[in-house]
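User:
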Amino acid sequence: MSNSDLEDEFDFDGELPPTVDRAAIDRMRTIAHVFDDFMRIPFTDMRVGLDPILGAIPVVGDVISAGLSLYIVLEAARLGVSFTTLLRMIANVSIDIVGGSVPVVGGIIDAIWKANKRNVELVLEDLANDPLDDDFDGETEVVEIEIE
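Assistant: Predicted structure:
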């Protein structure tokens, strides 16, 4: 899996460090694809996954969907994403669960919200942004302290 594959599938244009567990990224990517973008709706450009289909099964479908969505969050925590990113991911899953459980419109919300895809994008952005490199321009700075 190359970064160009990630750029094609997600809203991501960063560079992942070589230390990132690519197999974990691939597992998260697969779940996001199957649950959010598995098939194209005929005569449209819209794609849906199993999430809205599972949501049609009362309780059980929502539990299965939530469990796999939370797997992405757990995998992200294992990869070391920031606490803020984890909170945003949990918020995305919560919106998906609550919105998806609303009778009749829940399937539409599941088809549009795509929490898993959003969460993989959050993980990729977080992992690509190394906080240690943000302000480093390669030059050494000298700090002078004057004591009187």
